[in-house]
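Budget justification note: compute hours in this period were largely spent on complex prediction jobs such as the one shown. Inputs:
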Amino acid sequence: MITYIIRRLLLMIPTVIGISFLIFMLVALSPGGVGAALRVAGGGATEATNRAVQEAYLEDRYGLDAPVVVQYIRWLGRISPLKFGQRDQVAPTGERISAPKPLAMPWMKEWLPAPLPAVPKGQRPWPDDATAEQRNVGYARASDAYAQDRAAYVAARTLYREALGPYLRSVGLSHAVKGNKVREGVLAKHTPDRSSEHWPAIESAGRRMLATYERAAGSRANLAAAFEAKPFPQAGVPVIPGIVSVAAPDLGMSFARGRPVSQLIAAALPVTIGLNLIAFPIIYMIAIPAGIASANRAGSLFDVISGTFFVALWSIPTVWAGVLAVGFLANKDYLGWFPVTGLHDAGADRMTYLPSRGADGLWIRGYLLDYVWHVCLPVLCLVYAGFAVLSKQTRAAMLDNFNADYVRTAKAKGVESRVILFAHVFRNSLLPLITMFASIFPAMLAGSVVVERIFAIPGMGSLILEAINLKDRELILANAVMIAMVNILALLLADILYALADPRISYS
Amino acid sequence: MRNRFGLKDLVVLVAVLVTLGSVWMSMVQEDRRWKEVDVVGKRVQALEQGQARLQSSLDGASLGDVNRRLTNLEEKLAAALERGVAATGGAGTSGGSGATAAPGRRDESWARPGVPIEWQPPYGFDSDPNKVEGMRRGGTFTEAFNAQPSTIVPLVYKDVYGAYVFERITEYLAEWDPMTLKLRGVLAAAWQYAPDGSWLRVRLRDEARFSDGAPVTADDVIWTYKWAMNPQVQAERSRSLLDFIDDITKVDDKTVEYTFNKVLFTNLSAAMGVFTILPKHFYEKFTPTQYNQATGLVMGSGPFKLAMLDPERQWTPGQDIRLVRNEQYWAAKPVYDELRFKVIRDDLARVTAFNNGECDLTTPSSSQFARLRERPDWTAHNDARMWYNIRGGYNFIGWNCGPRNGKPTIFVDKRVRRAMTLLLDRELIKDQLFEGLARVATGPFNQTTAQADPAIKPWPYDLDGARKLLDEAGWTLKPGRDVRTNERGQEMAFEFTYASGSEVTEKLGKYLKDQAAKIGVRVSVRVMDWSVFMQAMDNRDFDAMTMGWSPSSPESDPNQIWHSRFIENQGDNFVQWANAEADRIIEAGRRELNEDARMKQWHRLHAILHDEQPYTFLVERPWLRIVSKRVGNFTEYKNGFQYDELFIRGPGASPSN
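Corresponding output:
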């Protein structure tokens, strides 16, 4: 059993890698691409040159200028708990600091007016006996300087690319600049015509690019030296010192919202789980007894009516049901029993947990009741469609067993029918229910897009939907990987429960 | 039998888990309440400090009066402060006192000699709630947004809703006067603008201070600018709008000087209206990363402040945004206590929440608006407001006037473009597609502003005129055929591209197709996802498209949409319209600092665009808002409405059900 579980867990790794690779590529290669979504999110009412530079900044920040496969490998490295190479450090503010990012090379070295400057040796910006405070300030200063110089270089590099445009068009090579990249392979075969009228612009842009490159390389060396002096405690635990370490996975930053993905998920997940923790027991507590009862009296009026009723509920689209619920149950022109949206009242933060009497003798509903009152309609929309499948499954499994030989034997022995029903038939009908149970967990995490939208609930459903709309790659990937892992784990759990429920099953 | 895990055990287990979970949740809630109490405590402390600072900062002349009042009302601390400040800081309403009142005594030592100083009138209400009958103090005003702002932090905000929130808490140096649409000083008491437009000196108001009582100084302005320009701060959007500024230097504690690297008419308004002034002493504590990731870290000098400003427990998307009146506000203070923003994305749920009294103001969809305002039982308790202002944009159909994939489109000829405009009954489009809640646009400039030439009237709906123009352009209808052809036998057909997601554009596509068929033009429709659509615009890979522009200021800069320079490099002139005269007018207009002369240029540009029709300007959209009658003093302005002028009537006046 144990080896089986370990084997399954190990199998998870390639599965997750496969899933994430597929999604990564889908997002990266989708028309419009990640960069386009970033620009849309930023709202683009700026001059074209500014916009190119602005895009270059964004691409530089999120590493979108690298080839897609490199981006994917970087992403894997970040979410993998096993880290290779230099360990991250944790600043006093709790920020995780990685080694400074490398600089991209200037475009077309051969065309530049001067050779590339040698990268100077970095200077650590504090003395040997520096205090923690001095190191902190020194590191912050070095990191500021590098950010400034790097930004200037990224801008100059973009402007150089733009400066190439008129010249390349004049010599019929405009395909050599594609999007934000200069295809150096194409240009290598071309001997530049330095007497062209467009050449001075290229030369001055090149000079600026070189100068900013030199400064950025210098401050990068300084920052690297500062980083290597380890001003802050290191993150994670070393496995092989200096080569492999274990640290918490980093889910990255949401492009569209500029916040760590882990924070976003941590805010949305409890909301969705809370809703589902109420919804699923309701489904189970109604559907399973109903299934048992209708199997016990198959063909009776109850069986027919409950079956029809559940299937009828199951056929109602949630969008419509939600709108009806808001329109009639929440609208004060009609019944107005429930609040329209949200999870809490405005003043819920100041309420006591349980209902109580306030200082003025008035009844205060309390935080718990307030929550329950607010989730009534969303939970209603979540549960009503769930009865049909579960009760039909229970009924079918029970009926199978009712007709089995051992039940006839038990009946013949004179065993009480209640005992037959629960101890024999129900227990043996558990397997399909367990399968159903395993599919619940991923559904719990994914949330319901429709319900969350109608009732303005900030859960996982709306988070994922918005991530997809904005092509927020890190957020999509994190969610997909999380849901994939929970799915796999739930299937594993189901398999283990099979073995517990049915002694005939063993995995050894 | 073995000891199995039975039903009874399950029940016990669940009961234990529920109890434990419940205990834990109650602890969390108690913790939350405890922190609320803590916040109240901190607020009282801040008020006490503020009072001390206020006393020490007032000069001898006015000190006696305020001091007496303050000591008299020491017990009612908050109320006392409110009145004390209204007497000194609320100069806008009472005609003013102190340094800004008498022009003769104005301190001009900060100014450069020889350049006229533009003193700004005292800042206050445009429509004073205190003078409205039935005004009541206190209460909460709630607005429901229809999209979720992901952060409300200045500079790094992502959407207009974020801006609506932080503009209540922080202030610009200057803003557009809501009635005249001229620039007026908010934090700026006066400015000097170099006659050649190369520098700008701004004097801050003496009385301006942040919500913690600290004065607004030149250091704050410079720090905010430097912070916005720091590449580690994710303020790309503001940064790209600030590239005309060379530097901002400090002249004295209350004066800064801008130097510009290019002379444009937008410099003056952008210099004072792109970023709100942030308190250096508050924000200095945070690293750029902390600032970038902040969701509710807003502090400033505005009439409101966050109900809870705790870097450890910030507002996060999903919660209601709670602002309270800034009791320390230096100008006219709002009369109600709390301003609240909630987010309800679903149209039906939002309007239901409004009808239930859960919010006082919201934006309905056009169809909801049209339906609600017809209901007498609804209008008895609520108002449906529709007005044109500078923030409502226009919708258009753009015709690709340049090559698509190397081949010129049929719209290269301006007669064809004009025929397309004549083909569309825009009054009908307005009435049927926009529920009558729009007006026909004449050009790219908002008709509310002086930028638009009022003499230009929209082209009429004229099918025969359209046919004649197409005949002239060489697209003729041969007998027995239903599609026009030119002399080379090419059929007259084009593709209409739009982004998915809007019912209105979908209907527009069908209408265009029907109308075009009437005069023998074949239209096919291409629908795309928004980001793919933007890519098609960038690559100029379309024949005709539709979209909307929304302006950000009363005088929009036509440069980036109409200048032929922006055909290259994926600029915003995606219809590839090039007109040498328009280019000249745009360049001259942008450099022209005299407003009247500049308006003449814009009117000329308007006329050219009207003649050329690179776009068919469809409609201008107004603002639609539904407002509860509980809200008093709601005034429609040319730039929207003013939150700080409202008041909330007593509960008795609210809808009875």
